[in-house]
TrEMBL record:
InterPro entries: LysR-type_TF_proteobact-type, LysR_HTH_N, LysR_subst-bd, WH-like_DNA-bd_sf, WH_DNA-bd_sf. Belongs to the LysR transcriptional regulatory family. Residues 1-53 form the HTH lysR-type domain. It holds the Pfam family LysR_substrate. This is Transcriptional regulator, LysR family. Keywords: DNA-binding, Transcription, Transcription regulation. Signal peptide: none annotated. One of its GO terms (molecular function) is DNA-binding transcription factor activity.
Length: 296
């Protein structure tokens, strides 16, 4: 099949033989074998020129597709056997990186000794292309449509407060009551609005706070010490909730989850080191109460 396709593209058996490093007679033998196998003539050939029959042209197009698929499959197999290597430059939100990303990196780097990692943790918007990052972890932002997005999961949230706070200020039973409570602001930039879906519809509550902190662990600590009501990722609260150090609030309402994605430029989609990292991170997050998320 390869000899037939090469003979068509080169225009002669002799030129095809030179490319394949075999004799012209061997090219002719392969073509005749295909004609016997298909039961039809594929080429019209004279001493001066050759041309495809109608069937031969159709067969040629299919052969090109098949050979392309074989080459792609071979490349995938070879890449799977290869060792990922190189430096991976990654950006991620501060709290996510601190609580979920950094803990998995030692085992990942141990499993892939030829990969090096440059991790930049910040809550500011990172320009993937201009700043030369291989990938960034974040919720979808305007302009991210130009990048490839790998869903990492949905970060489930829980509204909670310490018993000491609730004893002093009372327990809210409806989202609108949060306007009259001390709420701990994430200080991610601008105003913060908490959304709730319940039996009486959807409520978007613009909260105000005397304390704003742009770090999940610090917000958790403030809530734990009675600083106010906090909206936190559920994976951070499990132990505190089990030990009744924090109390879940408004449990009749559903809070929209935060969808996290790994964004990277299309040109880096096939990088083995990036694919290995993305797969490892996705599997790790699924063990940390981060549920699968749909594509954006």
């Amino acid at each position: 099949m390869t000899a037939f396709v090469r003979a068509v593209e080169e225009g002669s058996f002799t030129k095809a033989a030179d490319k394949l490093e075999i004799t012209a007679q061997m090219v002719g033998k392969h073509v005749r074998a295909l004609e016997q196998w298909t039961g039809t003539r594929l080429m019209n050939k004279t001493t001066r020129q050759q041309s495809l029959t109608e069937t031969g042209n159709l067969f040629y197009q299919r052969c090109k597709t098949i050979l392309g698929e074989i080459a792609a499959t071979k490349a995938i197999v070879e890449e799977m056997q290869a060792e990922p290597r190189g430096r991976l430059k990654l950006a991620a939100p501060l709290s996510f990186g601190q609580c979920l990303l950094v803990p998995m990196l030692p085992s990942f780097l141990q499993a892939h000794p030829h990969i090096e990692m440059d991790l930049y943790l910040s809550n500011r918007f990172v320009d993937l292309v201009e700043e030369g990052f291989d990938a960034v972890i974040r919720v979808q932002s305007p302009g991210d449509e130009q990048f490839v997005a790998k869903p990492l999961g949905e970060q489930q949230l829980c509204l909670c407060a310490a018993p000491s706070y609730l004893e002093k200020y009372g327990k809210p039973v409806h989202p609108v009551e949060l306007k009259h409570h001390q709420c701990l602001h994430g200080n991610w930039g601008g105003n913060e609005t908490w959304s709730f879906q319940g039996p009486d519809g959807t409520h978007h509550i613009k909260i105000s706070s005397r304390l704003k902190i742009n770090n999940w662990p610090a917000l958790f600590s403030a809530a734990l010490h009675g600083g106010g009501i906090s909206l936190q990722p559920i994976h951070m609260l499990q132990q505190a909730l089990a030990q009744h150090e924090l109390v879940p609030l408004l449990e009749d309402y559903t809070i929209p989850a935060i969808r996290l994605y790994l964004f990277f430029p299309p040109a880096r989609q096939q990088t083995l080191k990036l694919r290995c990292f993305a797969d490892a991170l996705q599997k790790y997050l699924q063990t940390r109460a981060i549920h699968a998320a749909p594509a954006p």
